């Protein structure tokens, strides 16, 4: 078995896949694609992922892209420990929680959106950052409301982390990238503390990646 992950230190989607691989205890080689420098558009990477995004998982030569699809693929290929609960209703809830970040919030902050804001609407760096912080905050607020309705015990669906917790943790990691605190979101913060106590989450954090450290941070 060989697993390669094309990712980048700042990629929120790559963070999610790193966590999933670690929870599954699956060793992998990460190949950096600097999405801030536009290397996702290089011909070599375009042959790997025609969407020009990260992450891409290569498993024994088979390519899978989009973080949700990758995590579900891993859960089917390596069923234990489970990322999705056995119960039908809980599986739907886990997917819904993960999708708040994966489908609703994070996509509004990715490089191609930031670039479009600047090129098409003349937004400067401060305006673009304010835009991103707004959508990160909206995602956190949504999670806070959802966790108020169904509190974490200690994770979103019980005693073990699932796809839901990976999604929420990725929203927290995105807040860290934009230097945002979680004071207004105590339930999200409490769940995040449970997640980041685990090496699978802590070691996958953007600020723990070699690419981040090379920037002199």
Give a brief rundown of this model.
The protein has about 220 residues and is of the alpha+beta class.
Portion in strands: 5-15%
Q: What is the β-strand count?
A: 4
Mean pLDDT: 96
Low-confidence stretches: none
Summing up helix and strand content along with how strands pair, one would put the structural category as alpha+beta
Shape: globular
Q: Report the helical percentage.
A: 40-55%
> How many angstroms does the end-to-end distance come to?
35 Å
Taking Cα atoms only, what radius of gyration do you get, to the nearest Å? 17 Å
> What's the arrangement of strands in the largest beta sheet?
2-1-3-4
Q: Number of helix segments?
A: 10
Order of helices and strands: EHEHEEHHHHHHHH
Biggest sheet record: 4 strands, mixed
Characterise the protein shown here:
- It holds the Pfam family GST_N.
- With 217 residues, the chain is an alpha+beta fold.
- It contains 10 helices and 4 strands; from the N terminus they run βαβαββαααααααα.
- The chain has helices spanning 12-23, 43-46, 67-77, 88-105, 111-121, 125-149, 163-177, 186-196, 199-202, 210-214; strands at residues 3-7, 29-32, 56-59, 62-65.
- The protein has a 4-stranded mixed beta sheet with strand order 2-1-3-4, covered by helices on one side.
- Helix 1 (12-23) packs parallel to helix 3 and helix 6 (125-149) runs antiparallel to helix 7.
- The longest helix is centred in the middle third of the chain and has 25 residues, at 125-149.
Secondary structure layout:
Elements: E1 3-7, H1 12-23, E2 29-32, H2 43-46, E3 56-59, E4 62-65, H3 67-77, H4 88-105, H5 111-121, H6 125-149, H7 163-177, H8 186-196, H9 199-202, H10 210-214
Parallel strand pairs: 1-2
Antiparallel strand pairs: 1-3, 3-4
Helix pairs in contact: 1-3, 1-7, 4-6, 4-7, 6-7, 7-8
């Amino acid at each position: 078995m060989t697993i390669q992950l094309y990712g980048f230190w700042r990629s929120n989607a790559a963070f999610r896949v790193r966590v999933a691989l670690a929870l599954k205890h699956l060793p992998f080689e990460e190949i950096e694609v600097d999405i801030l420098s536009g290397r996702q558009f290089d011909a070599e990477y375009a042959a790997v992922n025609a969407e020009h995004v990260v992450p891409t998982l290569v498993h024994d030569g088979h390519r899978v892209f989009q973080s949700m699809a990758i995590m579900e693929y891993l859960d089917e290929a390596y069923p234990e420990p489970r990322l999705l609960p056995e119960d039908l209703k809980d599986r739907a809830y886990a997917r819904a929680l993960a999708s708040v970040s994966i489908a609703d919030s994070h996509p509004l902050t990715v490089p191609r959106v930031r670039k479009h804001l600047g090129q098409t609407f003349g937004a400067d760096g401060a305006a673009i950052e304010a835009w991103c912080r707004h959508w990160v905050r909206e995602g956190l607020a949504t999670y806070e409301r959802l966790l108020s309705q169904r509190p974490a015990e200690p994770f979103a669906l019980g005693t073990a982390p699932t796809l839901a917790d990976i999604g929420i943790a990725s929203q927290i990691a995105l807040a860290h990238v934009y230097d945002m605190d979680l004071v207004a979101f105590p339930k999200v913060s409490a769940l995040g503390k449970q997640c980041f106590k685990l090496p699978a989450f802590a070691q996958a954090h953007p600020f723990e990646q070699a690419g981040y450290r090379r920037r002199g941070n």
